[in-house]
Amino acid sequence: MFLKRKYLVVLGLVVIFSSCSSSDFTDPNDSRYDDLDDIVNVPSDVSLSVDATDVVNINSEIFGVNNDWRQIPNSTFPNFANTLDNINYQLVRYPGGWESEFYDWQSNSTPGWDNTPSTPGASVETLKNNTNNYSIVIPTTKAMDRSVGSEQWNVAIEALKALANEAIVSSNISDGIVEIGNEWWLQYAGGSDREEKLTKYVNIAMELAEYIEDEFPGHTFKLLINGDYTHPEEFTTMKSLFIRAYDAIDGVALHTYVGYDSDTHNMADLEQRITDCANNFNPNNNYIYLSEWMPSRLYNDYALYMEAANIIPDIIHIYARAGANAGAYWPPINSSVPGLGITNWNYSKIFPVGQIFGELSDSYRGKALKTTSDRFHLAAALQDDETMVLFVTGGNQNSAKVGISVQGFDIDSIESVTRFVPADYSETNLAEPYLTETSEATLNSNNEVVIEVNKEGKFQIYKIILTGN
């Protein structure tokens, strides 16, 4: 434990000799006699800040994970679920991404899907037997490929209603999440342009929402539309086209693939875009599910393994500050996107992205605090009235003393400092778990928590626990 240090500027040394008497005693509660001998002035090179008066509640379900029906066979799904338990997951998205558009809920198969595996993935019964919380995706492709209002369209809509019913009943989704479709803007949709795709999708979503409201009156699950977070204006268009069953939609599902090195999917705009998408569709019914996300390689100078793990705390912090209700990381299996997966093919190794995900799920709870970052990134949460957790990521920055100014929270002690470091500083994109070390921090005369980040090498992550009030 590192005691809070008080600061005293000594201008000179004055020795006072005085006589002692029974009435001339030293009051131990007098501030003049407080402990001052351990105070040091440690300057910082970089200043970050956290404001404990500006808070947003953290929803634990942001720590969800996508299933990968193609990569995770039915027979090994229990082992996969055990691995997820080890990283404190809160939700599984099922069947997954694109497989959801082709999934047959009765036969546990994906007819018509180009990527159908030789061995089927987890059945809905296997899902229910091994997980406590999950969301489902109901398909839209059958109608997306048809012309709105045509006979083929009408047949497809009826087929989609039947599939939606089967999915909801067989999954026993209860108070979970039902997502209408997967990435309509990327579907072929019979060769339609983007505007036509949007119109088709809205018509499908209206039909399904209206049907679900009639078929499952009083349901407690959240019913969400899907959309592209890089185009918040499209949610305004969808609102204008949603002339039926508008109030049946509880919010939006977004796929927030993001990075520091992108004009189209940049981290700087992420929080605002998330809230804009939800509010543009319905500011009074704005549940937010970030149902696919990752620090994309193309948007982060091809960051892999420990390099990618350094981006995760910043993303999670933005999600929490945006008021996201739930999330599901993708990919769960590393072979889908090498360097960004949570675990390997047989679940025997958790990679750095999975490790930091688990660390955040365990510790980043309570209230998300407003932070400012400069070169190094800071995520902060108030676990309770007396405990604050800070995550500082070093990334590809050179070594520096980082000072973290804390406002609205009086620090009593630096309870613990843990450091997560690459398995090999000379190869920070190595396909190996990171190492965990005990480290130290100092509270300087400017009331800053000071740590030296990346001194031994780049891509360090610091976790600091503060106590106070």
TrEMBL record:
Transmembrane segments: none annotated. PROSITE patterns: PROKAR_LIPOPROTEIN. The keyword RNA-binding does not apply. Residues 1-22 form the signal peptide. Keywords: Signal. The keyword Amino-acid biosynthesis does not apply. This is Alpha-L-arabinofuranosidase.
